[in-house]
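Budget justification note: compute hours in this period were largely spent on complex prediction jobs such as the one shown. Inputs:
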Amino acid sequence: MATQHSRSAARLMMAPAVVLLLGWMLVPLTMTLYFSFKKYLPLRGGDLGWVGFENYVRFVTSSAFWPSIQTTLVLVGGVLIITTVLGILLALLLDQPMWGQGPVRILVIAPFFVMPTVSALVWKNFFMDANYGLFSYLWEFFGAEPIQWLSQASMPSLVLIVSWQWLPFATLILLTAIQSLDSEQLEAAEMDGAPALKRFWFIILPHLSRAISVVILIQTIFLLGIFAEIFVTTGGAFGTKTLTYLIYQRVLESQNIGLGSAGGVYAIILANIVAIFLMRIVGKNLDN
Amino acid sequence: MARAVTTQRKAINTALAWAIGLLIFFPILWTILTSFKTEATAIADPPVFFFFDWTLENYGVVMERSNYGKFLWNSIAIAGGSTLLGVIIAVPAAWSMAFVPGRRTKDILLWMLSTKMLPAVGVLYPIYLLFIKLGILDSKIGLIIVLMLINLPIIVWMLYTYFREIPGEILEAARMDGAGLKEEIIHVLTPMALPGIASTVLLNLILAWNEAFWTLNLTAAEAAPLTAFIASYSSPEGLFFAKLSAASTMAIAPILILGWFSQKQLVRGLTFGAVK
Amino acid sequence: MGRIVLEKVVKRFGEAEVIPPLDLTIEDGEFTVFVGPSGCGKSTLLRLIAGLEDTTDGRIVIDGKDATGLPPAKRGLAMVFQSYALYPHMSVRKNIAFPMKMAGMDQAEQDRRIAKAAGALNLTDYLDRKPGQLSGGQRQRVAIGRAIVREPSAFLFDEPLSNLDAALRVGMRMEISELHKKLATTMVYVTHDQVEAMTMADKIVVLRAGHVEQVGSPLELYRTPRNTFVASFIGSPKMNLIEGPEAAKHDAHTIGIRPEHIDVSSESGLWSGVVGVAEHLGSDTFFHIHETGLAETITVRADGEVSLTHGDKIYLTPRPDVIHRFSADGLRMKDELAVA
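Corresponding output:
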């Protein structure tokens, strides 16, 4: 509700943000679409003309495509399962009365603020290095043969690193959600004779359902775009080439722009499917 | 629950939570500790924890050898510049959406958020090409613009949620009291929203500081920030554990401290208000 | 001077017509109350007068000048909001000074007016506090102070007492009434509480769905409600509305009789029923009576000492001279001469 005067002022003040984002979305998107229908090799002849859907077909039929999808699914799925489950448990624990709750929270959240390149390097060298990593010492201590983590168990290692980065996010959001639960509800359930496990299952978990779906959706969007961690640890070798990394290699390493762009369009479609679900939840929340 | 808990149970909670907390924090702690070791101690078998000769030597070497100051300055300029620019563009937009909502406001807001979901790799080449054409590849201004654009939806969104908490009646009261649009924003809205604006700035500094797709792909020697500086250590031949630790510690310390202040805002900013 | 005239004022939000063409005159110095159930358009009407909403059509004339297109600040009105709308980051003094600062008034005059307003509103000791440190009643006074210092041609109040607790509300009601007597400035007051309307107003405007149902002094509305809506909205407890054969006896579709206009007896009377709930307030007793054959419940206000309780048989006799008659479309019919 407002007057005509304030409405026109509002439109004017909103314009810069809208125009910029519209440009940011449309210009590169149009270019990607344009390139995706071309054979375009900047280092080997440049623009070699229109090829229709050939790039789209070639991208999905290339031998690297299905493994990259599998890698992406393992990475995203693995991290989601680990962070969500551990996040719920950790949030429940942190919600309990204890001494030094504030400091513990800080300890738990800290990894989220570490830049991706640093956390990848720290894990790669200090923990997973076959000669000097702490894991090797640990394995040797128990008499086991040290493992070449990033080559022999590349995916579990990557999942571990990324989970470490994202567990704080899941925990923090789920903790916020738990704390918003009306404690009278739990007390009522207790009066009704529900034991702790049932209280968790029938009251806390349903209350968390929206927070959990938000955690999953937002993480999915970020995890689909994971780049620096792979770039620093394996460079895409040893079966760690995700869809994002494959496209990156097509575009910048082998400079096959048409093929990479077609891959980019696939990635955009994939992200949009997730985004639709997320936007629905956000939109519902806007109404009240 | 407002109820007395037995000391025993509280002690168990405390022990468990601290153990897990320290476990999660351990990689960071280990990095910081290693940064104060000599290279020999850093790879000692068995590993040493606290009882070694602490040295600042690594910090000195990293700063001297690798031009750390330049990377640091690039990080500050890029994160600070993109955040500042973003806030300047977002404040008027968020004001409009919060206080003069129209039929389209919700759609515009959701659309803005959805641009945040655009996978970077999908538009990597166009941006790369545009940067070359515009001559801003490997320049701070180019990265400031890109990071501003990718964080603008979050800035608008966060400011919007903060502004919405300011009752519209107060702004109407200001209008009745004779304040024009400019006075309304300067004397009433901005002072009231200052904590919210500060939190928004904080969270976006963190996000921009840690951004590691565009900063890695669009910079080389000139504009590379700390993310790229650290990535350059990944080549095995240049690897020294203690020095790597010192470099890492210096790269994450500022943001770790800022981050601790912004826990609450993190939830608000990154869930787009879907979790309260 | 503060004569406000609305001429064929219309407000539409998109398709929805919130205020259909409406004419109203608020005389200078009058205390006018807009009353009606929530969603009746009373607040919108006030905001149209304030200039916080555009009128879709029609004219608003303030002090003889067309103010329809003027921004709020140029209309010479002051408003007290439901939430008080104090600036939380400013002290009480700065809050009160804000409109004068915006008008560029010189400092000495500002200080003089602040001192005067603070004295009148018992705020002198609180001038350097922030609104967050004040009680609800004090905040209310600051909001009024902020309005007074502008010396407006009219005050607009948007449900100013609804955030206060019951006891405080009664006190503030009196303060605002006294303020009106002292300043003799036009006041337009919006409320959904008919008690506030009855106790404060010179003139009440009853609104429903944007329509003016009736305009008049409190007692006019009480004595001669123009239709069943006004009849049941004004007065507490609500007027009893009775349809059917009993109404037909009075040649009406509906008859209305106020709870205080029915005499009760435990032995005999015109109507009879069974006491459902008896609310003993000490000074009065309210009986909610069932099984009368007239309406589901008949409410009666009786003397405080009447000791009938739940389940007792009760006899009722309406006073014939205060029976209101309404036609099938709910409109008031001419008063009948006494019925035998």
